[in-house]
Structures are given as C-alpha cells and as structure tokens.
Amino acid sequence: MNEFELIRTHFQRDPLDPSVVLGVGDDAAIVSQLSDYETVISVDSVVAGRHVPQICPPDGFAARLLGRGLSDLAAMGADPKYVLLSLTLPTFEPGWVDHFADRFHKLCVRFGLDLVGGDTSRGPLSAHITVIGHVPKGSAISRSGLRSGDDLWVFGSDLGGARAYLDVLDGLESNHEVWAERYWRPEPQLVAGLSLRGMASAMIDISDGLCQDLFHLLDNSVGSATVKLQSNLIPFCDDLVDRFGLEKALEYALTGGDDYCLLASIPPGLEVPGCGRRIGMVVKGESARILLDGKPLPSKWQLGWDHSR
Amino acid sequence: MNEFELIRTHFQRDPLDPSVVLGVGDDAAIVSQLSDYETVISVDSVVAGRHVPQICPPDGFAARLLGRGLSDLAAMGADPKYVLLSLTLPTFEPGWVDHFADRFHKLCVRFGLDLVGGDTSRGPLSAHITVIGHVPKGSAISRSGLRSGDDLWVFGSDLGGARAYLDVLDGLESNHEVWAERYWRPEPQLVAGLSLRGMASAMIDISDGLCQDLFHLLDNSVGSATVKLQSNLIPFCDDLVDRFGLEKALEYALTGGDDYCLLASIPPGLEVPGCGRRIGMVVKGESARILLDGKPLPSKWQLGWDHSR
Q: What does DSSP assign to residue A52?
C-alpha cells in the first residue's frame, strides 16, 4: 500500500460539518468559518521513545495524541472543529494502522472534529497534529490575567496518575488500570473549558506538571502574585497516597506531567461548574511564588517535564 | 536551553499581521479571519533520511520545508497567512537551530507568513508544518475540473533539476549549483497561483513528479480525458539534456519529484500570465491517459515519488 492508498483507506472520511468545503485529498483543505468567531490553533506531537514508549499500543497512541492536542483547545475555552495529522511510521503494519485510524476517527466523531489534512511518511514513529477550533470573538481564555484575590481551581481528572504510570513502565510498580487510563487516554476537558468562558481570569492545561504550568500563569499575572496551595484540597488519583505515602503522592500530583486537567484562576463568588475543585488561592506577591500549606515547595522536587530534554 | 527557552529565543516573534490576536506562547494561538474569505489549510513534513539526507544544512532544511508547504497553498490559488511548526531535533546544536530559525523567519517575512504555533521535542530530525492561507469565498482552485479542450501549462521553475540533484547526492554526478538550488530552495509559485484564480480549470503542484501529479488531475477530470504532452515544449532544468541525453532528461523532468512548479489546465483563448509554459493539451479520453509525442509513456519509467516507500 503506497501513501495515496494509505490516506484514502485510513484517513479519508466524509466531513461531519458543512463548514468543510473540501476535505482530505486535494493540495489543501478549504473550510468556511463563521463571522463573529475567532480561530484557535495549536500544534502538538507525540514522539515514540520520547513522549511514549518506543513500542506502544496504536489506540493509546491515537488517544494520547488527540487528548494532548484537544486539551490545548479546552484550555482556551474553544470548540474543536478541525484536525490535521502528519504521521511517520517505521514500517507499514496494517494491523497497527487499522487500530490507530479506528481510534483516531472514533475520537474525532466524539469530539466533533473533522480530519481535513494528512501527511504520511516513513521514519521513526511519531505523530504531529494541528488542532483548530473557534470561539466567539473576544471570549478565548488566555494564560494572562491571574490576580490576587482569585481562587485557584482544577477541572477534570484527578492528579498524578499519569506520572505514577511511568513507574509501572519502569517496572517499579505493578500494573494499575486507572493510572494506565490516565496516561494512555487523557480526557480533554472541553466541556469544562467552554463553561469557563467569561468566568476564568486565566487558564492553562496541566501538561508539564501542575506547579510548572502554574508558573506560566504567574509569569503572566496582573501585578505580583503568590499562590497558596492546600495539600488537603489536592484531588489525588486512585491509590497514589496508599502506594507512595502522602509526600511522594503530593510530588507526583503537583509536578508530574500529562494530567491534562485544566488549571484556572477564578474571581471569588462566582458559581463554578460542579466538576471543578478549588485547590488554593492567589494572594499579593510574597518572596515565594507558590506556597504549599504555607511553606515553599521542597527544593528536591524536579519541577515539571521538559519535552526537549 | 530547555523547550520554553528554545521557543522563546528562536521561534517567538512579533506578529506581522494584525489578524494575529495571540501568537506563540499560550496554549494555542488566536487569529481573526476576514468574512467573505475561506480558509485553506495543508500539512507537510520533511523527515531526515527520507525526504532529505540524514545530515543536511539547516537553511536548506528550512527552505525546503516552507517551500513544500507553501507550494500547496500556491496550488489552491491561496494567499499564505499563518504557519505552525513541530520540530524534532536529535540534539540541541545552537548553531544548527540558529541557522534554521534565521532562514525560517526570513522566508516567513518574505511570504507574509506569521508563525503562530510551535512544538519542539527530542528525537530523530524531522519537521512538520501546517500552513494556513485564505481565498475570497469560492475562488480556490482544486484538482477537479480538467476537461478536454483545455491546454496544459506549467508555472514556475524548469523541471527535473531536483531529481538530477539526487544523482549528485548519490555521487553519480559532480556538484551543480542550479540543481542544488532547485532541491534545497524550491520556490513556491504563490504569485502565479493567485493570478490563475478564475482562469485555471484545475491545478496541482508538482511534488511527486509531473506525470504522477497529472494523473491526480485526470482522476478528477470532467468526463474522460487524455493529455497529449509535447517533448519540445518541456522546460528542462539547466544542463539536463547535455548531461543525461534527451531521453533521460525527459524521464527526470516528467517523473522526478520535488519541482514544486504548478501544473494547471486552462481553457484555450485566455491571456495566461507570462511565467506560464504550455506543455500540451487535453483531448477526449483515449486508451492511454497520457501520451508523449503521441505515444504512451515508456513502461520502464518509475512513475513518481511515493513518500511512504
């Protein structure tokens, strides 16, 4: 099967949305966008041997790829519309591609996403997606705007499970379904993202670890600010405290990457959607930018995940 | 230098166009599009060891990447607006990244393109770009619409030079500046593309070889059609005939990939832009779909370049 047949068989589908004027199969796709809306765009990659193990399940590869990309749209409060996929495969294994494409399309249907562009080549396994969404003009939520007085909230799954799963991969822990689920099938918090338009003062998705992503919000705060986190409010993933003890569980929940929850600052007194959990508050800037139960973060914590390492 | 510093230093620039509401540096970019326009989108990749040699010059890598991507917009008659880059680097060599980013930004400025999204990771060298352009509603030129009676034209550089350069890389030929230029710095035919709106009945860019790309136009023709090519009208790249003889030069010009000219069918009697060269005509379908000087294409020709091979 050559490139054209592969694209035709696995990646060409009838568009879901009438805004797709021309889909996969020409030099480029054409989409027609609503006036009074702005376009929100992000690019993400999953490289085998780097973001995921060298050999990995095709459905997990697809789910993590789309989860990661859509989480960026969720963090802007955007509605997903289109996706473009550039896939590099070491060999053409029909079974692997079948399963990958199957999961990819199922998730596209679930999230109302049209695949409008594809590129395939031979090479070390990696996939790169561009996700495109939209928001009513002026209503996107950026990383800028956190200010003292706000509360700090997380939306979506509990924290630290994806990080704990790396210990399973390293053979340090026995298999654990929930952690594997968090790692391979991250759930982009699109509904929560939409519901926070006009409410969150700033928002980011937790991809590099809660504290590291929080630093990005603090870097863009209005005036100097310090965040006070409360350990008793942190929503831990299943069995994290039992297996590792509270101290290590906190480290995993606050510094482990790949949770893909949303982290938002919200002025007090607003009616926050039910899936949100308040984990702390923002005060005027002090010497430390993040305090945990009133103390600076432990210096031995490896803060966050640097994808370029 | 970690991922964030790398992006900040090398890939964050002030937007050129006021339509960029929010550029690189947040979860996603926000752009505001004109009403009465449609958005044109394409994704492309350059994988080292596959599309280019394993070790390759950073400025050539950047120029070929953007040339390849923008050529898809040219082939739709679209105006380029935005680009997103996902870059995978085996190691962080400041000199290499400097040169790559420098050439990338210079070309962005030249083509009026804003870099609105970036992702970097460690891994085998590859780059994936999504290019986004626009056209007044309904004016994009697709691959569908070629019909008998049309003339067949190429726009842009001469043909076969990029293919001949592969012989230089393989050590079969001595260095040749023009061929190297065609390979490393393909010129996307954006101006020609724009000028063909409302004129070309169908268009494609020559990335996989003239004949193979012509088959895509024939696959989407209105009614059955055969293209009659005339070898005396083919614009050969410098020295192709002298070095290889006419027969081999024709093979390179008609089947070699990576020329990134435009191939368009145009009804007769129109005033075609000066940079165009007529290379044949479309007649009612015969048993062969392409005839060269009245004969079927030589069966020994390896037709086109399959990027998934």
A: B
